[in-house]
Design brief:
By secondary structure, the protein is of the alpha/beta class. It has helices spanning about 10-15, 20-35, 40-45, 55-65, 75-85, 90-105; strands at about 5, 35-40, 65-70, 105-110, 125. It has one domain (about 5-129): Rossmann fold (3-Layer(aba) Sandwich). The protein is about 50% helix and about 10% strand. Helix 1 crosses helix 3 and helix 5 (about 75-85) crosses helix 6.
């Protein structure tokens, strides 16, 4: 079994909106077909925006295919640890990072700088695939 990736909100938006370079979109096609994984936080961030109805439908349809990881005690505890260690880490980012760490996922995000200091977190910019 290969790497498992968890998608950040900006990755979902870029992928569904065809905003990725062709090579990155093809790479994402391959592992999304195997495992489409994200966090409940990402679902809230993406669908909580009042955007173009056509784009919002595409985003909703895409997320309906995903395995959504919810906040359980292990993720909550890891989030607490992260927030204590990384004082400037936003709550949403801490929850997403904790989900990745608890489950051993590589985080796909355009905002790698927001996560690069977190020890043990594998993080990849999908635009670099």
């Amino acid at each position: 079994m290969g790497k498992h990736y968890i998608l950040d909100a900006n990755t979902v938006i870029d992928y569904v909106g065809d905003r990725l370079p062709e090579s990155a979109a093809l790479a994402m096609d391959n592992f999304i077909n195997d495992d489409l994984i994200t966090s409940i936080v990402v679902k809230i961030e993406v669908l909580g925006f009042d955007g173009d109805p056509g784009e919002m439908k595409k985003l909703n349809d895409f997320l309906a295919l995903a395995t959504i990881f919810y906040v359980d005690d292990a993720i909550a505890d890891k989030t607490i640890d992260l927030r204590k260690t990384y004082k400037k880490l936003k709550l949403g980012d801490a929850l997403i990072a904790a989900t990745a760490l608890v489950h051993g996922f590589t985080l796909l995000t355009r905002n790698t700088k927001d996560f690069q200091s977190i020890a043990g977190l594998a993080c990849v910019n999908p635009h670099d695939l």
